[in-house]
Protein: prephenate dehydratase
Amino acid sequence: MVPVENSIEGSVFETYDMFLSSSVKAVGEIILRIRHCLIALPDVSLSEVETVYSHPQALAQCRGYLQSLGVSVEVTYDTAGSVKMIKERGLRNAAAVASERAAEIYGMKILAKGIEDYGHNYTRFLVISVKEAQYSPSSKTSIIFSTAHKPGALYNALGAFARNGINLTKIESRPTRQRPWEYYFFVDFEGHQEEEHVKKALAELVSYTSFIKILGSYPRASTELS
Structure:
């Protein structure tokens, strides 16, 4: 399971880059309410904390709270890994931003709960696999494509969805890193790649693109946002 989008901080670009270079398929979608905690060694108090470690998305989601503490921040690969690192190194002047579950797993102390700056903080995850998901009538599909660098190219490409009655739920651009000012477009839309109107749209899209990759079709998340 990999994070692709947060309701506060936006897209997780590391995941998009992974999809470009990997053959894994998106087979499911999960939306989770994010509740961050400040976590330290069991005998450490809040006043001792000078540095906070975590994934950049987690640090950004708690920016206001961390600034109020007057601490420095250090970026790490993931949230739970930060808790593990502090425990293994015995860092008394450090804390991590992670979940309550991470504190339980590593036997660490929660100094503060709910430290995210915004209450309605959700992250969308994609479940990945080496195999395609089975058909579901309530599906979304994720793709990547690029177009020729000329006027109307993106307009024509997106028109394939409009002409076939397909609703786009997200579009995001990302530099190709091959030539300046050329981009990959990551698109999520309603429908399954095996449905006829989706097949037709994708066939049209091919004629307007220089590259296209279907990441997968998967059941839409049913989580209610509250």
